[in-house]
């Protein structure tokens, strides 16, 4: 009986290793892929998204037959594969980013005007 268990111990070890690899690597990746597929299938015009290259844009159109999406990035229209969309930006976060960008733009336009009104060292002489 003991000899029989020794002959099967190698096979049992391989089966256990395959099971561990499945539960630690393959299964989580399948869940992540299914979650991404679900997110991509619900995309619609007007959604704010981030690509895998970290490019932020607004969806202009979705073509499910060719599996492409056209993004509006500050007036520039770019075409991407649907698989290139990393995630959808929640509406409240997108609004916060837009207001922050607008306030930074206002600060940038105000700052040069203030520095232009100050006399330079040559003008002071």
UniProtKB/TrEMBL annotation:
The keyword Membrane applies. It is a single-pass membrane protein. GO terms for cellular component: plasma membrane. GO terms for biological process: protein transport. Its main location: membrane. It is found in: Cell membrane. SMART domains: YajC. The chain crosses the membrane at residues 6-25. Keywords: Cell membrane, Membrane, Protein transport, Translocation, Transmembrane, Transmembrane helix, Transport. The keyword Zinc does not apply. Belongs to the YajC family. This is Preprotein translocase subunit YajC. It comes from Paucilactobacillus oligofermentans DSM 15707 = LMG 22743.
């Amino acid at each position: 009986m003991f000899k029989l268990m020794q002959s099967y111990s190698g096979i049992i070890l391989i089966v256990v290793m395959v099971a561990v690899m499945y539960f630690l690597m393959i299964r989580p990746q399948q869940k992540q892929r299914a979650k991404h597929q679900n997110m991509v299938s619900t995309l619609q015009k007007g959604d704010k998204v981030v690509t895998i290259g970290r490019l932020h844009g607004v969806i202009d159109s979705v073509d499910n037959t060719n599996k492409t999406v056209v993004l509006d990035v500050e007036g520039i229209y770019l075409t991407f594969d649907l698989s290139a969309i990393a995630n959808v930006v929640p509406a409240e976060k997108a609004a916060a980013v837009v207001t922050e960008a607008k306030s930074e733009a206002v600060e940038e336009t105000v700052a040069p005007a203030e520095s232009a009104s100050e006399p330079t060292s040559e003008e002071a002489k």
